[in-house]
Amino acid sequence: MSNLFPEFNRQSELAEALAYKRYGNVIDIQGNLFTVDLPEGEAVTQNEACFLIIEFDGETIPLKSEVIKVVKNNAYCQCFEDTLGARIGDVVRFGGMPLFAELGPGLLGSVTDGLQNPLYDLYDKCGLKLQRGVYLNALDRKKKWRFTPSASVGDTVRSGDWLGYVPEGPVRHQIMTPFELRDEYTIKEIAPTGDYSITEVVARLEDENGQSIDVTMIQRWPIKQPLHLYYGDE
């Protein structure tokens, strides 16, 4: 059994970043652009999310970044925050996933920054002076939403098919079969009408090999898809 979108608490990203096994070191930095030298045999992909780990004012701060190009054993990255305090030799850790946006109930009523941090929650945590390296969950994990199933156990579904719906104000969110699923799946379990948080399982699907996949109300969509259009040695 697997969860297509395992729960990821953005408030623990420092711990997550420090636990990443794949890493490199900064060899050049200009503003918010920096180059990482990767150890022999280490591989990263374009548009992969990473963290530039800096030491500043006695604190260890993870700065969210993205790989914008890979040439041989060098990764060219863009940082989304002020890089004050970054130095040659700083460690960059790679998580193996692209930058993503969280979609689900609660999104329509939120106001976020460019990294999908909810601004009101960010103010409660940091005050008027925003801190670097602070990343909050885009969607409220505690709030309950009224889920009503629109599919039944035994139904065959493909990506994008409706499993149920959740009202948010005048809008009816359709809870869909995740778009990452390319084959046909059978609904083995589906939650009855009731109130659920966005991290609770509302449907369980099974593929032709008997592999189960849990579906919640959250979907995470990559911000970008890599394009391989480099020439020559690149």
TrEMBL record:
Q: Where is the ATPsynthase alpha/beta subunit barrel-sandwich domain?
A: 137-224
- Quote the InterPro entries the UniProt record gives: ATP-synth_a_Xtn (IPR031686), P-loop_NTPase (IPR027417), V-ATPase_asu (IPR022878)
Q: Name one GO molecular function term.
A: proton-transporting ATPase activity, rotational mechanism
A Gene Ontology annotation in the biological process aspect, one of them, is: ATP metabolic process
Pfam family of this protein, just one? ATP-synt_ab_Xtn
Record has Nucleus as a keyword: no
- Name the protein family: Belongs to the ATPase alpha/beta chains family.
PANTHER family for this protein: H(+)-TRANSPORTING TWO-SECTOR ATPASE, V-TYPE PROTON ATPASE CATALYTIC SUBUNIT A
Q: What is this protein called?
A: ATPsynthase alpha/beta subunit barrel-sandwich domain-containing protein
